[in-house]
Amino acid sequence: MKENNETSQSNIDEVKAERHKARQQKVKESVDAKIAKAQKEQGVLLVLTGNGKGKSTSGFGTVARSVGHGKKAAVVQFIKGNWECGERTLLEGAGVEFHVMGTGFTWESQDKEKDTQAAKRAWEAAEILLNDSSIDLVMLDELTYMVSYHYLEVERVLDALKNRPSMQHVIITGRACHRSIIELADTVSEVQPIKHAFEAGVKAQPGFDY
Amino acid sequence: MKENNETSQSNIDEVKAERHKARQQKVKESVDAKIAKAQKEQGVLLVLTGNGKGKSTSGFGTVARSVGHGKKAAVVQFIKGNWECGERTLLEGAGVEFHVMGTGFTWESQDKEKDTQAAKRAWEAAEILLNDSSIDLVMLDELTYMVSYHYLEVERVLDALKNRPSMQHVIITGRACHRSIIELADTVSEVQPIKHAFEAGVKAQPGFDY
């Protein structure tokens, strides 16, 4: 009786293993077919938007990836925090060009004229990068706010993005990305906050939050 | 008449600038109040889940940030691609410890028993890190699949997370994170795909997609 039970258990396990194998085979076939179909090579415009944590760090992770492959990357930061961000130290050390907009947090600023001028100067640095085919990847960190605060005209941003070198990748991060930039983008991810330690009273900590 | 128009336009601009200033002042006050309230310092458990692009790169970006601040970070990768990822080159060079699970893409595998053994070995490496207070940040890349494929018991994962050093930060990435890990987490972001270049036939490219 016990032996029978054991045999039938082992049969069940075998059937399960076969099912798992068949299911995984199907997944593999579907992934392979998609990979076979995706043969275009081009510069990708990636937008990371939404209110959740992880947009800029994701962009910086891709910059790290790019540098790790020997590619040339550059970053324009449109909002500079009051602190030095840790990734800058590492990435600048690895040869990544950084341009940082010369004002504090935009939400700490009450001078629209000064902020607009600073945004325009940072955008001019971005335009030079977006016109330089030796740069493989341009990250425009927190650019979305410059458009939503009307510091930059969206048409000017779109023009530079459309006319950039065809193999150049661009990453734009920030909340509430303008609809017309989303339309132009090839890949768009929206990072949604499910919960955040900060709301539970946890302090922003160096090496993790900045 | 023209002069009058100019005067009234300049009045409107002044009113607009004042309004902008008042609005920004309010935003600043609200942000400052939240910062003042958030005084707890602790290790944060961050989960990056959802189906969109940018979860692992966000984790790696935080690892880069951590290293840039002179912190000690380690990564366990639970799904190893067929390609070498660029961020590993850079981060390992900067002293980040990497453990890579010894199988290919899980969705290319049809051997559940072999995968389970590989997952368990990788998890043992994770447990050692989660028990070592000299490690400031542990990234468990693509861990979620190990739980959803039943390669690892969620209780074992929760135990190690709960009993880790109190100041240690942990990042877990991957789709469909188990509910009980989300409950335990301090910060959870869900990355949702709005669109993806791959679906439009664009090839995965080195230095950007891996």
From TrEMBL, chains A, B:
Matches recorded under CDD domains? CobA_ACA
What is the main EC category here? Answer: transferase
The protein's location, in the record's own words, is: Cytoplasm
Give the E.C. number(s).
Answer: 2.5.1.17
| Keyword Nucleotide-binding listed | yes
Q: Where is the Cob(I)alamin adenosyltransferase N-terminal domain?
A: 16-35
Keyword rRNA-binding recorded: no
Sorted UniProt keywords = ATP-binding, Cobalamin biosynthesis, Cytoplasm, Nucleotide-binding, Porphyrin biosynthesis, Transferase
The record's listing under InterPro entries reads:
CblAdoTrfase_CobA (IPR003724), Co_AT_N_dom (IPR025826), P-loop_NTPase (IPR027417)
Which regions span the lipid bilayer?
Answer: none
Ranges annotated as biased composition (Polar residues): 1-12
- What is the superkingdom listed in this entry's lineage? Bacteria
One matching Pfam family: CobA_CobO_BtuR
* Pathway the protein acts in: Cofactor biosynthesis; adenosylcobalamin biosynthesis; adenosylcobalamin from cob(II)yrinate a,c-diamide: step 2/7
Catalytic reaction equation(s): 2 cob(II)alamin + reduced [electron-transfer flavoprotein] + 2 ATP = 2 adenosylcob(III)alamin + 2 triphosphate + oxidized [electron-transfer flavoprotein] + 3 H(+); 2 cob(II)yrinate a,c diamide + reduced [electron-transfer flavoprotein] + 2 ATP = 2 adenosylcob(III)yrinate a,c-diamide + 2 triphosphate + oxidized [electron-transfer flavoprotein] + 3 H(+)
Q: Where is this region: Disordered?
A: 1-30
Residues making up the signal peptide according to the UniProt record: none
Q: Which SUPFAM superfamilies match?
A: P-loop containing nucleoside triphosphate hydrolases
Q: Care to name a GO molecular-function term for this sequence?
A: corrinoid adenosyltransferase activity
Q: What does this protein do?
A: Required for both de novo synthesis of the corrin ring for the assimilation of exogenous corrinoids. Participates in the adenosylation of a variety of incomplete and complete corrinoids.
Query: Which family is annotated?
Result: Belongs to the Cob(I)alamin adenosyltransferase family.
This protein's name: Corrinoid adenosyltransferase
Q: Which organism is it from?
A: Shewanella surugensis
What gene, per UniProt, encodes this protein? Answer: cobO
